[in-house]
Specification:
21 helices, two-stranded antiparallel sheet, single chain, mainly alpha, 480 residues, 64% helix
Length: 480
């Protein structure tokens, strides 16, 4: 994973040097800073490989990975890669403080899109490209590409990708083949969106950066005002690809393989996603029409889709939408996109399953002998699935409340709405929040401790809590 980041740094340098940017962005390249960053990444990666090979030879252990080892690899791997991804911000111009570098790097890899920088337009092309590249890499999951490139299709690979959870819903029976198709699809969406954005009027550099961040539903850009300065044509392209990538990728893989009836049954979550989103958009449009807020309908649609897909692009200032409008956006932040997509949030499927489980339990109160089955997409949720479902819901609530209390104590000058929305945004990997962290603001005024806590919340939300929390269990580290 660390070596992969080193290769990605080289790719970002070459793309920044080769892709024309026009007069809008600086063309500087701090070769010394990048040499240090790439050198540390490769040295650390090779050192880990050598240590692993020596340890395996000494202890005569097999390459088979047990579940607890997979959990440890995912949790430690994401924390370590977040630190390695911070190296360019530390050593390249403009150099920033350690907590700012870690925050930005974590926001990139987890596809959160929250930025701690105030003036990104002054950054060199290489740093802007690195920000976008980290989001593209994190969109499908670092371990997902690791399995495709370096691993086989055995039990170890299945546990790694399943634990990372970025592709839950994928058919893991033939893992390597499925993952390869996923990445081909991901690349196709990236190239197509890049071409469409360029034809819509962006410079090649802008088009590449926004293509990398829209297919990963991540939200980093090249302008200080996000995408507000772009025309309706460019934002329409971004809107389309946000919707495309907020939908379960396995649906596209089965597009020509399954019948229409089978697609409707198996991908029930997708139709619920569009139904809930449609109802939310209609509600917001009616609200703005009745209140005569003067917000254009396209801006309402764009910002709502950006929030629900957890992309984080901003075309307007939804912090002035009024209490009801912002309440609808909070619901969309919590919901997020579909399982098997690059979107964050709790996912539509979990919320549907939770609602059906509650209904089933209510019916059991007056019909105790009735057989109760909670189903979604033609699949029945077993006891293990129910436990995992309520664990994620409970952990989301716990860290939302606990994180808000901690942030309120660390940042006493920040309003309660600001602290709450910042924690919610990081847990759901959305990016912009409300009040002091609204769509026209950033996270630059957060202190070092607060930035580290928000960074940890991003990773917790991205890995859906379990892979990080188990690292604090003593039993995980016992030798058997």
């Amino acid at each position: 994973m660390v070596l992969l980041l080193g290769v990605t740094m080289l790719a970002a340098i070459f793309m920044a040097a080769l892709v024309p940017a026009g007069s809008a962005h600086q063309t500087g390249l701090d070769l010394q800073g990048w040499a240090i960053s790439v050198g540390i990444a490769f040295f650390l990666g090779i050192a880990l490989l050598v240590f692993a090979a020596h340890s395996r030879k000494k202890n005569k252990k097999s390459d088979a990975m047990r579940r607890r080892e997979a959990m440890a690899v995912v949790g430690i791997g994401w924390l370590l890669t977040s630190l390695v991804a911070a190296l360019p911000y530390l050593f390249c111009e403009p150099k920033v403080a350690l907590h700012m570098a870690i925050f930005e790097a974590t926001s990139g890899l987890t596809t959160t899109g929250a930025t701690i920088f105030s003036d990104i337009e002054s950054f060199p092309k290489s740093i802007l490209m690195w920000r976008s590249t980290t989001q593209w890499l994190g969109g499908m999951g670092i371990l997902a590409i690791f399995v495709v490139v370096l691993s086989g299709s055995g039990t170890s690979g299945r546990m790694l990708v399943g634990t990372e959870s970025s592709l839950s819903g994928a058919d893991l029976a033939s893992l390597r083949q499925t993952m390869r198709k996923m990445w081909v699809l991901y690349l196709a969406f990236t190239v197509t969106s890049c071409a469409a954005l360029w034809l819509a009027g962006l410079t090649p550099f802008q088009a590449v950066n926004h293509a990398l961040t829209v297919v990963s539903t991540a939200g980093f850009g090249t302008e200080n005002d996000s995408v507000s300065s772009f025309g309706v044509g460019v934002n329409s392209v971004l809107l389309i690809f946000m919707l495309i990538c907020g939908v379960s990728f396995p649906l596209y893989l089965s597009m020509f393989r399954l019948s229409w009836r089978e697609k409707v049954r198996r991908f029930e979550e997708v139709w619920w996603f569009f139904g809930i989103l449609g109802a939310a958009l209609l509600t917001l449009i009616l609200f703005h029409s009745i209140s005569r807020s003067g917000v254009p309908i396209f801006e309402v649609i764009f910002d709502a889709v950006s929030v629900v897909t957890t992309t984080g692009y901003v075309s307007g200032d939804y912090d002035h939408w009024g209490h009801f409008g912002k309440s609808v956006l909070v619901v969309l932040m919590i919901m997020g996109g579909c399982s098997g997509s690059t979107s964050g949030g709790l996912k539509v499927g979990r919320l549907i399953l939770t609602a059906r489980f509650v209904i089933a339990e209510l019916r059991a109160s007056f019909r105790p002998k009735e057989l109760r089955q909670v189903r979604l997409g033609g699949r029945t949720l077993d006891e293990s699935g129910q436990g995992q479902l309520f664990l994620v819901i409970a952990m989301f609530g716990f860290f939302l409340i606990g994180g808000t209390l901690v942030m309120s104590s660390l940042e006493p000058e920040t309003s309660f709405i600001g602290s709450l929305s910042a924690v919610l945004s990081c847990l759901s990997n959305v990016g912009p929040a409300f009040a002091e962290f609204g769509p026209r603001e950033n996270f630059a005024h957060v202190g070092p401790t607060g930035a580290m806590i928000l960074s940890l919340l991003m990773v917790l939300g991205r890995l859906e809590y379990v892979a990080i929390l188990v690292l604090f269990s003593r039993r995980l580290w016992r030798k058997y």
